[in-house]
Write a structure and sequence with these properties.
CATH class of the largest domain: Alpha Beta
Number of strands: 3
CATH architecture of the largest domain: 2-Layer Sandwich
CATH topology of the largest domain: Alpha-Beta Plaits
Helix content: 40-55%
Order of helices and strands: HEHEEHHH
Strand order of the largest sheet: 1-3-2
Distance between the termini: 74 Å
Radius of gyration: 22 Å
Number of helices: 5
Length: about 160
Amino acid sequence: MVLPSTYFTTQPFENWTRNATEIMGTVDFDVDFTVPLPEMRAELDRLLAESELWDGRRGVVQVTDAVGGCARVRMLVSAPNSGALFDLRCAIREGMLDWLQRTQSALPRYRLGSADETLERRRRGTVTLIGKCSGAVGFGAVAMEHRWMFAFQAAASSAVT
C-alpha cells in the first residue's frame, strides 16, 4: 500500500512497528589493527556495568570493517528508551575515548616502510606518525595531511644528511 506523505500529516495513525520502547544503538571507532579486542570488550563491559542507563540486554564489540590500515569497531548497546540510549551512547563514546588514550597502541597509525624498518625505528626511538583513518573530512584533515607530509619530509631529509 502506497500513501502520499500528506496523509500522515493530516490523518491520525498508529505505528505498529514496535511493541516496546527498548531500542539498540551503536558507537563506532576506527582503531589500529593491533587493538587488543579482548581488553576493549572488557572495557565496554565495565562501562556498561557502571551505567544506570543500560538495560542489560545487549553489549557487544564487533569488528565490522578492516580496510586501509584501520579496523572499524562497532559497539552495540541497548537502553530502555531513546533518551537513555542517546545518553548511554555518549557515555560509552567518552569512556572508550579515555580507554583509547590510555591504550595508545590502539590509536590508528600510518605505517611507512617494511615491518623490519618499523621495528628498527622503534628500537631507535623514532616517533610513529599517528592520525585518523579514511573517515577524515574537512579542513582539519587536510591540515593534518600537510603536517604529516612535512614531518615525513623533514625526517627523510635529516636521515639523508
